[in-house]
Structure formats: C-alpha cells, structure tokens
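tool_call predict_complex ligand=1,3-dihydroxyacetonephosphate
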Amino acid sequence: MRIPMIAANWKMNTTVSEAKKLVTEIHQELSDIKNIDKVICPPFISLATVYELTKEGSIKLGAQNVYFEEKGAYTGEISPLMLTDFCKYVIIGHSERRQYFNETREIINKKIRTSLSFKLMPILCVGESLEENEAGNTEKIVAGQLKSALAGIDYPNGLILAYEPIWAIGTGKSATGEQANKTIGFLRRNINELYNETAAQNVRILYGGSVTDTNTTEFISQPEIDGALVGGASLKAKQFISIVKQAREIKNQTSS
Ligand code: 13P
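tool_result ok
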C-alpha cells in the first residue's frame, strides 16, 4: 500500500514571520495525524525556522528547488547538501521553473541525480500546456518529461511524481478527477516500462493544479492518485488542514 501524501508548495509567498504563523497553525492540527505524509515546502529563507517549529512531530519539509552541485562558486544557489539538514524532499521540474527560469530537461535530470545521491527525495513535476492538451498531446509530453528526467538513473527509490497540468495551476480551472487519474495511470505504466512493476506500484504520484478543500474528494478518491501538491490553498491553514484530513479519510476508507 502506498501512503498518501499531501504536499504544500508555498512558492514565493510568506515572509519569515508569516511562515512562522502559518506553520504553527498547521503543526498544531496535523502533527499527530497518522497514515498520511504531510510535507511543507516553504521558501528557502524560512526553512530553518519552519524546521525548528515542526521537528517534534510528523510533518516533513521539502525545498522548492535545488542546484545540482554539492558546493562551490555558484553565487546564489543552494545545494542538496545544505538542504539535508532540514528537508526530506525537494520539488524538481516545476513548470514555473521550466517556464520562467529556463530549466531544461537536462538540468532537471542533473538535479534529480544529485538529489537522489544525497537521499533527498525528489518530487518530480510533469505536465502539459493548454495547447499541448488541446492538441491531444498530453501523454506524449508527460512521457517525454518523465523519461528525460530519469535518464541514466538505475532505480529511483523513493521518487515521488506530481502530475501538474500547466493550464490548471493557479487558474482555478482544475482537471477532472477522471482526467487526472487517466494521466497518472499512464505515468505509472511508464515507470513500469522504464523500471519494473514493483517500481510502478511503489511510486507515489500526486495531482497538482487548483486543488482546494472543495475538490479534494474528486481527486483523492481516484485509485491512481496518491495525494496532492497544493499551491494557493496551502497558504490558508484551515484549507490545508482540511485537505489533509479529507485525504486521510478517503484513502483510509478505500484501503480498509
Ligand atoms: P495551485 O494549487 O495554486 O494551482 O498550484 C499548484 C502548484 O503549482 C503546486 O506545485
């Protein structure tokens, strides 16, 4: 059985004091909740503070980005080695990084490799644009992104995938549960082809794109969807707490 996961991607939001306030509320409600992994990905500058406030409990942290070298003259970058003090996870290949920061498939592959070598678990994001979706190319695009990101990697133990259709991010226009389930099932079959059935059954695949506390059930009740990567709604403590609690209920029911 795959343990469900809800991850909060705060993106470039929250000052350190805002992060403190937000995580304190979330921690109070969620740190004792079992049978679901809760991950918070704050901005780099708040990682140490958020870590101090959550280390006594079950909430784990993730970074929103990482560089692919261990250390050296790379002004402004953060290495996987630096993150391992605070984080268990790192988001890699988010469409905002591909789009605004020119992250190529090759860079994403390097970031995945280096992170895995530091036992920092990547949450690898894939997803198609609106044009690609409308042209019927969703599967071709996500399969290509997946294959290139994992090139040369023997066995991606602990890898997490997130299917985030670009047209659903921050737009309020989410995919339907069925659409997301279909693409996520397709990604799982791709993992089977690239590795084997065990890897496919073990890999957790999240849906991301306008997930809120009112549409959580639609996604989480789908058999292939193991959780959600939440942007905007994760900045509101009440909403995020509700998403986690709903997801846990639904997955517990389906597994019992
Ligand atoms: P929204 O939930 O704001 O659409 O963002 C999704 C996302 O990009 C999470 O990584």
